[in-house]
Amino acid sequence: MSSAQILQVRGLKKYFRVISGLIPRLSGEIKAVDGVSLAIGEGEVLGLVGESGCGKSTLGKTIMRLEEPTSGEIIFNGVDVVKLKKKDLQAMRGKLQIVFQDPDSSLDPRMTVGGSIEEALIVHGVQDPAERNDRVAGLMEKVGLEAGFVDRYPHEFSGGQKQRIGIARALAMDPQLIIADEPVSALDVSVQAQILNLMMDIKDRDGLAYMFVSHDLSVVKYISDRVAVMYLGKIVELADKREFFQNPLHPYTEALLSAIASLRPASKERILLKGDVPSPLNPPAGCRFHTRCHRVMAICPHSEPEFREVAPGHYVACHLYA
Ligand code: SF4
Predict the structure, then answer these.
(1) What is the DSSP letter of 271?
(2) Which of 83, 101, 244, 258 could form a cystine bridge with 239, CB 3.0-4.6 A?
């Protein structure tokens, strides 16, 4: 990665306490994010993939501090986000934004869409109403919606249009990085391409970066510069897109790619993953993937593999590459 880093995450953990019993007491911790380190450069798109429940959405929310981290560092533009007080955190969020899978979750059904976008500007201190009106109209046009739609309510828009409005809200304060959490998963396939193209156009025009969270490797291949794979709270592989798709190393990555005919190398068979993702409440010892791995070795249940660089820019956590 040649560009300057705008986000560095080091050893980030997010554990959720589980309270149970007639006399409520702590019975365990769900290790949703368990020691994640990664970096994103200016204008870069990092795709983050993994099955449902692997912790990728929690990672995005924890980076935003919508979930409080258990430990670790989140450095955004040289500032440790974990240490920010509420007021400074709010200011920071103008430049570090999130777009959710369900656009309804960020739109108030009782507020016009223009009002929703304007609200983001008010929160970030744009006080002049005339300036806000101009910026709302500009943002609507930027995401491909007529400025005249500002007085309409969310229910008057399609799913794709609502996601455009969600993106307009996120763009309100000229962010440098958007965490896009499955932003097209709820949309029809034909609309998905339109939203992805819109996001790429905005990125190219404004130079912003994305952390693009998705379970869909085809989408990630289309939009990403680098790809990271997450399994049970940990990153298990990270590489440039070309290297990732041509030379996947981690057995979990191999299995994910083999499940998609268009991404499977012609010489390879489909690898069927055994069973479900184990509970993050009680993850397997050693390599967390060993209960499902088609290449498991004697060492794997006993020793956790280190996440190490095995080729320039290609990192993997697997004893096959120790
Ligand atoms: Fe499979 Fe062992 Fe590698 Fe884990 S460390 S992915 S169990 S081969």
Answers:
(1) P
(2) 244
